[in-house]
Amino acid sequence: MAHIGDLVSEMLAQYGVELIFGMPGGQTTALHDGISRRTDRIRHILMRDERNAAYAADAYARLTGKPGVCDVTVGPGANLLSAGFVEALNASIPMIGIVGELPLDWLPLKDKGIASQGFDQLTFFKSISKEAWLVPSVAALPELIRTAFRTATSPRQGPVALIIPHDIFDAEWDEEKIKIAIDDRAIRAPYLRSAPPAGPIQEAISLIRRAKRPALVCGGGVHGSDATGDVGVFAEKLQGLVVTSLTGRGAVAETLPYAAGALNPLGSWAAIELIKEADLVIWCGSKASQNTAMNWTLPLPEQATITIDADPLEHGRTFRPTVPLFGDVRETLSLLNAALDNQSHPQWIERISAVKAEGEEQKRIEIVSDQVPISPPRAMFELAKRLGEDDIVISDASFSAGWIANFLPAKKAGRSFLYARGQGGLGYSTPAAVGAAATRPGVRVVTVAGDGGFSYTIGELASQLQHKQRVVNIVLNNGRLGWIQLWQDIFFKNVQSALLENQSCKPGFAAAAQGLGLEGFYVETPDQIGPALDKAFACDGPSVVEIRIDDLATPIHSFKRRMKEGASEPRPRPGTVYKLRDWKISPALEE
């Protein structure tokens, strides 16, 4: 006899969902029973922790453009989804959470857990999702599933929660009475695409033609709109500076002469320097967040601006753009490409080349270092030599994002770098690798995490091993919380609680990996890096490469010498660098 678990799994399969990531529970067993009868079309990937199910689904969504689906049971399973849901909400990643619930007629017993594991899940998910629904009946479920896919994939994309009571999940599915159908427009994001009217397009074209030093800032919205092809055409026509946010990396190949890398305090020195020289900044699928806008010092008062975004609320949130282009990134760029003739800015391109060369010389000094403990740039240099164009690189939060952005270039256009920048929480990389490797089983996945971030989700190594995934997990172990140590030293001149180890008890991540059945390699000197990486890359399954690094190293350019030499200037007060700049109006370029 078919049940509602069959209905849900059948609709998910028809929506093209090949993988679901999660942790089963008594209230959701019907779903897993339904999946078990459809393994030719849909499979379940067991995670070791519900929060990691959301991270794995997030990676699936970023790499496929389809909603990532995760499932959890009621109560503790549901509340562990919060970190991954907020990451997806802030990063505009389409996701659907299938959440178990107590039976409908137990509603008065949920408060304070009178009924085991009960709490107000709907209110909880309303606060961390694009939308959330409690399924009221069997008859309402098919339409709510269609609504979930449509909502998750429509602008602005994001996570939604579908909370299904236990008695509904276990109910009989009368296939004659309850027919199912899907909305095939919502299989992949974006569900709908809009375009700006002709007037603003022409205003933008006029502004671009008047610019002498144009710059294009590409955010994660480029990938969310599947617009890398159109960005490439536009960049060639623009002949100006191209930089990206961390999540926008791969919008263009960073090997191009006008591409200067990631604009971020953790990112490219050349990007940070060059963006200040632009007379026009085009924010393309970028929300001008704190880090990409360099603590909201950008745009500069004299810079004209164009914003391209499918979310109307992004046009003017921290500055009033000279020309707002409200529309889907791909559709908007298509219109701009059709109207824009090839621009020429030889002096600007020459300047970009010169600053990039200076930045590369700075990096060259770092990557040849033979110091012990190891300089992280040296480790990244060795890794870069072994990465292929199709490999997926996943960054954990904190300094790992900077080491990747500075020393692992995006060799071609496309989303091959995944960053947890929606919330910036530690512990993203290892579970995201499970989702990425399951989504692209023939591709190598490489994660880079500090010892603090890697400690969060080390249990998911077992998931990587269970599914024989080709994941190389690199742990940059400095024995402390590097960002917190830096913060405490700069603002308080006192390192208080950042140490993760002492001399008598060091975390052995390579040994832990070996204990779980993976290959594990420990590296202490520069000459050991290459051989360890070669062995890890040759593994058929997952591996861990633990590299002991300099505990004073930081990728933040403005702070690189502080930890070693001390600050010569007065120390800023806590919070100074995070002061929100005044909202302003961007000017137009002179006619």
From TrEMBL:
InterPro entries, alphabetized: DHS-like_NAD/FAD-binding_dom, THDP-binding, Thiamin_PyroP_enz_cen_dom, Thiamin_PyroP_enz_TPP-bd_dom, TPP-bd_CS, TPP_enz, TPP_enzyme_TPP-bd
Question: Thiamine pyrophosphate enzyme TPP-binding domain location, by residue?
Answer: 400-547
Signal peptide positions (record): none
Q: What GO MF annotations does this protein's record show?
A: acetolactate synthase activity; flavin adenine dinucleotide binding; magnesium ion binding; thiamine pyrophosphate binding
Keyword annotations for this protein, in alphabetical order, are: Thiamine pyrophosphate, Transferase
Transmembrane residue ranges: none
Q: What PROSITE patterns does this protein map onto?
A: TPP_ENZYMES
Family matches, as PANTHER family: ACETOLACTATE SYNTHASE CATALYTIC SUBUNIT, MITOCHONDRIAL, THIAMINE PYROPHOSPHATE ENZYMES
| Name of the protein described by the UniProt record | Acetolactate synthase-1/2/3 large subunit
Organism of derivation? Phyllobacterium trifolii
Which classification does the entry list for the species?
Bacteria, Pseudomonadati, Pseudomonadota, Alphaproteobacteria, Hyphomicrobiales
